[in-house]
Amino acid sequence: xxxxxxxxxxxxxxxxxxxxxxxxxxxxxxxxxxxxxxxxxxxxxxxxxxxxxxxxxxxxxxxxxxxxxxxxxxxxxxxxxxxxxxxxxxxxxxxxxxxxxxxxxxxxxxxxxxxxxxxxxxxxxxxxxxxxxxxxxxxxxxxxxxxxxxxxxxxxxxxxxxxxxxxxxxxxxxxxxxxxxxxxxxxxxxxxxxxxxxxxxxxxxxxxxxxxxxxxxxxxxxxxxxxxxxxxxx
Length: 234
Ligand code: ADP
Ligand code: ADP
Prior knowledge:
Layout: E1 2-13, E2 21-32, E3 36-40, H1 47-54, E4 62-67, E5 70-71, H2 77-87, E6 88-91, H3 103-115, H4 120-132, H5 148-160, E7 166-170, H6 178-195, E8 198-202, H7 206-209, E9 214-219, E10 222-228
Parallel strand pairs: 3-8, 3-9, 6-7, 7-8
Antiparallel strand pairs: 1-2, 1-4, 4-5, 9-10
Helix pairs in contact: 3-4, 3-5, 4-5, 5-6
Bound molecules: adenosine-5'-diphosphate (2 copies).
Protein name: Lipoprotein-releasing system ATP-binding protein
Family: Belongs to the ABC transporter superfamily.
EC number: 3.6.3.-
């Protein structure tokens, strides 16, 4: 069933100002439950803007967006925040972990933000996720004590802790060396396979994109390509 139904999305920055610019010119995209999609395109083609709109971090100028069947374009900020917390996980190029907190505290942070406290069941779930991303020995470590790849794995555990149906990742391996990139990518694929989470992953790495199930390419604010990726035996 459809998770995302985006129709005729247009986005204009600086509306009404001299710098006014339309950066997405009528983008339509459907994402079904369980898909693992690579989003590619040259720098400035609108990938981050599209991801931010899909992630309810930014509003569109016109068009319609249904998330799990619900039209979201007219919801107020409070409603959007609720949807964002429960339906979406985010992984960014830079991990955005809180430096003063341990890996485990960082992973439980979404519960704290949403409910104001963390109960035993939630704590157990966070531990289980850190274990699943291979960090059972590093739960008490602060981000600065972890390698870049390990920091990204903490960020992935945090993105998954509320069990969202969809995770949006903006160049999650963009800041990593090849070996750590591969590890992080394999981990995303494993979370997809084992937990049924859908992923939209922005990447500049065509080698990794070839290992996604579907490739969507933006050029100059339009979808220039949208095709199923041939199986690659990963
Ligand atoms: P990509 O992620 O593909 O590099 P972006 O979505 O970041 O593309 O940017 C698409 C275009 O929109 C670029 O021309 C960029 O300069 C512009 N842009 C992005 N964010 C803003 C903003 N907040 N204000 C004005 N222009 C923006
Ligand atoms: P990337 O190309 O890796 O997506 P950018 O360096 O283009 O990243 O953009 C980084 C951040 O700055 C993004 O949040 C984007 O929305 C914002 N941004 C990009 N271009 C502009 C712009 N012209 N004016 C204001 N903000 C911008």
